[in-house]
Structure prediction request, 232 residues.
Amino acid sequence: MEKTAVITGAGSGVGAATARALARQGWRVALIGRRRAPLEEVAGSILGALVVPCDIGNAGEVEAMGLRVLAEFGSVEVLVNAAGTNVPKRALEVLTLDDYHAMMNANLNGAYYCVQAFLPQMRERGSGTIVNITSEAGKAASPKAGPGYVISKFGMAGLTSAINAEERARGVRACSIFPGDIDTPILNKRPAPPDATARAKMMQPEDIAECVLLAVNLPSRAIIEELIVRPR
Prediction:
């Protein structure tokens, strides 16, 4: 197995924690995100990390990113779709079309584009693991999440199911992780961001990174199709 991994949303939160966790286990990682500066900061603590700024909601940029990563790594065994966003004005009565499309591009379309960038070489090789960081909002709608986020996360769960339905016989597997509240920067986009007391009761990005490691390190004969994890 080639120990190479691509992580989207790698500049902060779950993506950054996952990149560090994989690197500690000897994986060479490609860090993907919109802004170079946060990616470079994460890369500073990871030996041999590849930094590739990319707007994953742009299909052309993802295609170019995939070609660059594969040219550098030769192959990619693991893809972790950890990028995601929300907006403060998220309820149906105030959600703008621009904000809706921005969420769909970042949360769902981007994940699909990245899957299509790396799945063909996984399929040809006969091995690969794709982990989609979904959300408990991908299981049940709530006013806290808002419809744009909910729709995108239900879509991510469907993408995971479709990969397993079509690709498991070819050696490729996918896992949806459905976390509850995590103390990450996306909380600042809530209409009323939680205070320090509320954040202290939430999970940390490192907790979700451990879930990713579980899905990745499981013997190839087994698939964790769905993993729900919530604060204790």
Remarks:
- Residues 104 and 152 are 6 Å apart (CA to CA).
